[in-house]
Design brief:
572 residues; Beta-galactosidase, Chain A, domain 5
């Protein structure tokens, strides 16, 4: 989280509350050794792996899958291409691992491959790679060469690719199912030769994502893994891990995801007959060029019965909120809106704001820049009555200032009586001393929500408007932040029309716009655009109320009481 945004919200709150004062006179994850244990320093987990989570009574019921006989010599590594309009997945025959996930509908913003279709995975990806732990032995199935049923598959409907491999007494059969309109891959498998006591199946999820964004540092900050159990979701950012740190997390989990800023890969293990993820290990990886780790070797564990059958789904695609929400099981929370502790308040507002922005874009055929302009005006129109009430409450406070000052002077030696008399005065004049503050704070949750919407919403990624190349990124020419600062100055200036001179309010008028401009200069240009439009849309209301205040004579300083003439001394 950018600390500048927190300071910006604090300063804006001060700006809102200052006139009334001046004129008044990440649930903690279950980390430790009781989860998956073992593993070597390179993160390959070749040693024994155990779990305290007992295996479910029943294994997933899967139909028989074909198996292959041991081959005389290993075949060379090849790949299988699976493609539709939404994706192109590349699966290596070595380990049946997913080594490529290209999304034609999303372009990469990274300088090295800008404007090309976004490629999510690194070449060394071990996504869906398997390892089998039998007693004290670990079989590296991700090094085995599998025989695929096809080398290319065009997905026009539900389509399946099978992979088979065998060595010694162990035979493995995998079945991957694809749908043209979904980023989910159905995975079913069977392993023979597991033994009567069962085994532990490890599924690879690392090492992370290829950079797809213009701001590499920001994308790396968002890298992390997310787990979901019965108590909720828990996000662990990879940069929170020390380089070389091995983190273990115990389950059971309904799903486990690895995410970047806009994309996610996740193993979904819920549904009837599906065995949940029993735990995970994550070995942090940092390259010499990186200050903090942004990649990790992550392995999930599944208890495997003697029957040797397993099944789950893999999601490999964009974090599109409607698509994630349709999956259920709080999978949309893989893309968190808000800070821990405040998420309960911010998240509903952010979801509503995101929905409205996308709806206006889709149904009104407006560019997202125009959507933000209309949205900023709409917020001000909706809040107009509340702002009107707040500003008139402030004027009412100004009207009783002379009486309030007399009460304060009369009872300044008796604080308890002073408080009673002040509240009595408020009641007589139907004045709420805080009425000018809270209605003006209502736009703050929307502004907070928009900050997270621009941080996390993939629909706004790469959306250009006028000279702005991307509303989710800063203005390269700093024009919008300057306009935002000027609009803030203009709004404050109009709001002080007719007010008596006050050094403190003058400081607010000049200093705060400068400070806010500096704080917002590297925020998303769309956020600055919305804030500038809101300020400009508020000026007519401020001007109208300033005129009303001047007509009532509330802005004039109180007239000084006439000084009595000194009495002349009588002559003796």
């Amino acid at each position: 989280m950018d600390r500048r945004f927190i300071w910006a919200i604090v300063l804006m709150s001060l700006i809102v509350m200052a006139p009334a004062v001046l004129f008044k006179g990440e649930r903690v994850g279950k980390l430790g050794s009781e989860g998956v244990t073992g593993g070597q320093a390179d993160g390959r987990t070749d040693g024994p792996v155990t779990t305290d989570t007992p295996a479910p009574a029943a294994a997933p019921q899967l139909p028989d899958l074909p198996t292959s006989q041991p081959s005389a010599a290993p075949a060379p590594e090849d790949s299988v291409q699976v493609y539709s309009e939404l994706f192109t997945y590349t699966i290596s025959t070595r380990g049946a691992r997913l080594i490529g996930a290209t999304l034609p509908t999303y372009k990469s913003m990274a300088p090295a491959d800008s404007a090309r279709p976004a490629q999510l995975l690194l070449p060394e990806s071990d996504l869906l790679g398997l390892r089998l732990v039998r007693g004290a032995d670990t079989l590296r199935l991700d090094d085995w060469v599998f025989t695929p049923s096809t080398t290319a598959l065009s997905v026009g409907g539900p389509s399946t690719v099978t992979f088979t491999a065998a060595q010694g007494d162990v035979q493995v059969a995998l079945e991957y199912t694809f749908r043209p309109d979904d980023f989910r891959i159905g995975v079913r498998g069977a392993v023979t030769g597991v033994g009567p006591n069962g085994a532990l199946l490890l599924v690879g999820m690392g090492p992370g994502f290829r950079n797809t964004e213009a701001n590499l540092g920001e994308n790396q900050r968002e890298m992390g893994f997310v787990t979901k159990d019965q108590s909720g979701t828990e996000l662990t950012r990879l940069q929170s891990l020390d380089a070389g740190e091995l983190r273990t997390v115990s389950g059971p989990f309904e799903w486990v995801a690895v995410k970047s800023k806009y994309f996610v890969t996740a193993v979904l293990a819920f549904g009837e007959g599906t065995v949940p993820v029993s735990g995970l290990t994550a070995l942090s990886i940092a390259t010499p060029e990186e200050k903090d780790a942004s990649h990790a070797s992550i392995w999930l564990s599944f208890p495997l019965s003697a029957e040797g059958r397993f099944g789950y789904e893999l999601y490999a695609g964009p974090m599109e909120f409607p698509r994630l929400a349709a999956i259920g099981h709080d999978f949309d929370d893989v893309n968190p809106y808000g800070w821990p502790g405040f998420r309960t308040i911010i998240r509903p507002v952010a979801i509503g704001v995101r929905w409205l922005l996308v709806w206006m874009h889709d149904h009104l055929n407006l560019a997202y820049g125009m959507v933000l302009v209309f949205f900023g005006i709409l917020v001000r129109v909706v809040l107009w009555p509340l702002n009107q009430k707040a500003m008139r409450s402030t004027m009412a406070m100004q009207a009783i200032q002379p009486e309030l000052q007399r009460v304060q002077e009369k009872y300044k030696q008796d604080p308890q009586r002073l408080q009673q008399e002040m509240f009595k005065l408020y009641k007589e004049h139907s004045v709420n001393p805080f009425g000018g503050c809270w209605p003006m704070l209502l736009p703050m949750p929307v502004l907070l929500a928009l900050f997270f919407v621009f941080q996390n919403t993939i629909e706004l990624r790469g959306q250009a408007f006028m000279w702005l190349p991307d509303l989710s990124r800063p203005d390269p020419y700093y024009i919008i932040p300057l306009l935002m600062g000027l609009s803030m100055y203009g709004l404050t200036k109009v709001g002080q029309l007719g007010m008596p001179p006050n050094p403190q309010t003058k400081m607010i008028m000049y200093v705060m716009p400068v400070m806010m401009t500096v704080l917002f200069v590297n925020f998303a240009s769309g956020l600055n655009l919305y804030y500038a439009v809101q300020n400009l849309a508020s000026i007519p209301q401020q001007w109208h109320l300033a005129q009303e205040r001047m007509k009532r004579g509330l802005g004039a300083p109180p007239a000084a009481a006439p000084t009595p003439a000194p009495k002349k001394k009588k002559k003796d």
